[in-house]
Design brief:
Elements: E1 5-13, E2 16-22, E3 26-30, H1 37-52, H2 55-60, H3 65-68, E4 79-86, E5 98-109, E6 112-124, E7 130-136, E8 139-145, E9 151-157, H4 164-167, H5 177-189, E10 191-193, H6 197-200, E11 204-205, H7 207-211, H8 224-234, H9 236-249, E12 253-259, E13 267-274, E14 281-282, H10 288-300, E15 308-311, H11 320-333, E16 338-343, H12 346-349, E17 357-359, E18 361-362, E19 368-369, H13 375-384, H14 390-396
Parallel strand pairs: 3-16, 3-17, 10-15, 15-16
Antiparallel strand pairs: 1-2, 1-4, 4-5, 5-6, 6-7, 7-8, 8-9, 11-13, 12-13, 13-14, 18-19
Length: 403
């Protein structure tokens, strides 16, 4: 069974008043600025922050509960809720998925507030067996259901606002530790990727590649030179495909090489060989679009990708002729990592299938409608248009989600 996230439900998180989004291998969010695309991505940043730091620090880093909660109502909502369904643990399936639910509640007290949390985990185990973990107050309740309807229950003490995602993975298997650890591992691995061109084009220190077994591309591609050099050294086939893709989109490009201005053990610089030029071009002197393209291709050829890769404005700075290849490569890579991508580009949407498009809108009450149009309705509109491309239908307003 393919391991992936199959549904996201959110209530009262920023502009996400109440949404339910089914997710496939490739999911592309389209819509106007402020429609809620970035807020969907931030749900996953928030969950990863909870795993790394816990609930209160994750809220405080975003300005506190009131800044995170839905702002379209007259009053601050009394709770924020996130629910996930996935097939991440060993015995899960589409019919018996893993389920996680987090509810953070607020009670006003004078000029202050009191926060509480409630979490639940549901896992399929062996034949006929399931496990549910419910966390409230300072107690986690673990209930195992047997195949004949019998139950075993135990309780575990937790700190009042401590999250099960950050604490339960340390427990023994019979207390749910292994299942929660699997879920937390996947959530913690989620990446929200956005190439920072100013740092991606600079020299990379070789410390990570020299001392770590696993290559990891930074979320802003700040270590792009080091990552590309490591890929070039360790996965020749992937490197050849990446270089061929770059040449296809950049006709003047003849090849990609590396230089070591401070010695091969200290730092590395990406060098481009281009037709018609006397000497190679360092990546720092390349165009904005070239740097972004190489950053995205590096991401797509990552040999050890996370469970979910989110990409902000994937089309930013790229020529439309690059989008067709990019969509093909994202689709190829979606067999290894699930994608959630935000874009404003009708040209990119033109290259998508109805099942890959998620139209986002925001109404007069400040609520994001995601998806604003069901897959069934998208297919119906495409059929009625005699197979007009999705980007043209979106641009014309037939699919909603104003540009």
């Amino acid at each position: 069974m393919e391991k992936r996230l199959i549904e996201l439900e959110v209530e009262n998180f920023r502009s996400l008043r109440k949404i339910s989004v089914p997710l496939g291998p490739l999911n592309v969010l389209v819509g106007a600025n402020g429609a809620g695309k970035t807020n969907v991505l931030d749900v996953f940043r928030f969950l990863a922050d909870i795993i790394h730091t816990d609930i209160e620090p994750a809220l405080e880093s975003r300005g506190g509960y009131a800044s995170v909660a839905f702002r379209g109502a007259d009053r601050i909502p009394s709770s924020i809720e996130i629910r996930l369904k996935a097939t991440w643990t060993r015995h899960s399936s589409l019919k018996a998925p893993d389920e996680y639910q987090l509810r953070i509640s607020r009670r006003a007290r004078g000029e202050g507030e009191t926060l509480s949390r409630r979490e639940s985990f549901k896992f399929k185990r062996t034949q006929g067996r399931g496990r549910r973990i419910t966390i409230s107050g300072e107690k986690a309740r673990v209930v195992d259901r047997g195949g004949q309807g019998g139950e075993e229950e135990r309780s575990i003490g937790l700190r009042r606002l401590s999250s099960g995602l950050s604490t339960l993975p340390r427990l023994a298997d019979d207390a749910g530790g292994s299942e929660v650890a699997a879920l937390a591992r996947q959530l913690a691995s989620f990446r929200v990727f956005d190439v920072d061109v100013a740092t991606a084009c600079t020299a990379s220190r070789m410390t990570r590649y020299m001392h770590e077994d696993r290559m990891r591309l930074d979320d802003d591609a700040a270590n792009l030179a080091e990552f590309l050099f490591a890929l070039h050294r360790t996965d020749v086939r992937a490197w050849q495909r990446l270089e061929a893709d770059a040449r296809q989109v950049l006709p003047q490009l003849e090849g990609i090489d590396f230089s070591f201005p401070s010695g091969p053990a200290r730092e590395v610089v990406v060098v481009l060989h281009e037709s018609g030029l006397r000497q190679p071009t360092e990546l720092a002197d390349a165009s904005f679009g070239t740097i972004r393209l190489l950053g995205l291709l590096a991401l797509l050829y990552d040999p050890e990708p996370p469970a979910l890769t989110c990409i902000e404005e994937i089309d930013h700075g790229l020529h439309p002729q690059a989008l067709e290849l990019l969509v093909e490569r994202v689709r190829d890579a979606s067999h290894r990592t699930q994608f959630l991508i935000a874009t404003h580009s009708p040209a990119l949407a033109d290259r998508l299938r109805p099942t890959e498009l998620i139209v986002c809108e925001r109404d007069d009450r400040g609520e994001s409608q995601i998806p604003a149009v069901s897959v069934r309705d998208i297919k119906r509109i495409v059929d009625a248009s005699e197979d007009q491309p999705l980007g043209e239908l979106w641009f014309s307003g037939s699919l909603g989600g104003d540009l």
